[in-house]
Known about the structure:
By secondary structure, the chain is an alpha/beta fold. The protein has helices at residues 2-21, 46-53, 56-59, 75-80, 91-99, 144-153, 169-173, 186-192, 217-222, 224-243, 246-255, 261-273, 292-304; strands at residues 31-36, 62-67, 86-90, 104-111, 116-121, 136-139, 160-163, 178-182, 197-201, 211-216. The longest helix is centred in the first third of the chain and has 20 residues, at 2-21.
Amino acid sequence: MRKNFRASVLVLSLILAASACRQPQGSKGLAKITLQADWYPQPEHGGFYTALAKGYYQEEGLDVSIQSGGPYLSPYQQVASGGAQFGMGASDRILESVAEGQPLIAVAATMQHDPQGIMVRKESPVRTFSDLNGHTVAVQAGSSTWFRYLTKRYQLNDVREIPATMSVANFVADPNYIQQAFATSEPFFARQAGVETRVLLISEAGYTPYRVMFTTQDFLRQHPDAVARFVRASLRGWRDYLNDPAAAHAAVAKLNPALSPQWMQFTWQELRDGHFVAGEGPNGSQIGQMDPARWTTLYKQLLELKVIEKEFDPATAYTLQFVQAK
Length: 326
């Protein structure tokens, strides 16, 4: 029976791999593309929803749908198995996935800097990551790589890690509570409850993954023109979103009514002020760009952490052919 089970899994894997290479036709003869989100619809996906709402994908001959994510869905597995042609993710997770044998490849950066970090109260004595020693930190399951990096770099031998919740309730109730957070989200809810915060960004510690859009090696090889058109429309959407979020926020609000206009405005402002999407380059020149040196540094950090145990060429995890600086 186990032998038959393995054979069934092999057949299923081949079917899924084949489906990932095909480019089905959508409405009006447009090439149908599914983009797997990394979370529920939110302003952090604003560039993609702008491109969708303003018809940029259609102009490129693509019929794009954005598939909602959530806490129990992996965009990496979804794309690798053929459940979507593109996914939203992070460059460290792409490297980890490639090391595990998933043929994924990043095709452009969505954010130059990850807004993830550690949130403390404004008056907290924790001013740097080194100050976390002796404290308890709430971290979500699956986020251990960057936290392992912090622990090793700052020799945090006296830190207690507990599971984080999808809320700031404990943070608001306990002045000493410290938790994982996105600078573009959780501080808003803490402020709504009357608590001012600070976020220690992981990028400030030298751990600097990109947020990326990615596909599979097979889909890229079979449909390079479709990838080029998808990247072009998406980056156009991100440029527009940073200037005017109205179209994206209207679309996101319909899909995720839990989002308030105030929350979305806060996130958009933080994305702009923090240069998360555009980077520090003039006039948004860094939007979508990726630096091979940063990929190599991140790869070496993952090796040192033993998150990646077998060496490979990190350049196989990304391509610059769609984001060469103009």
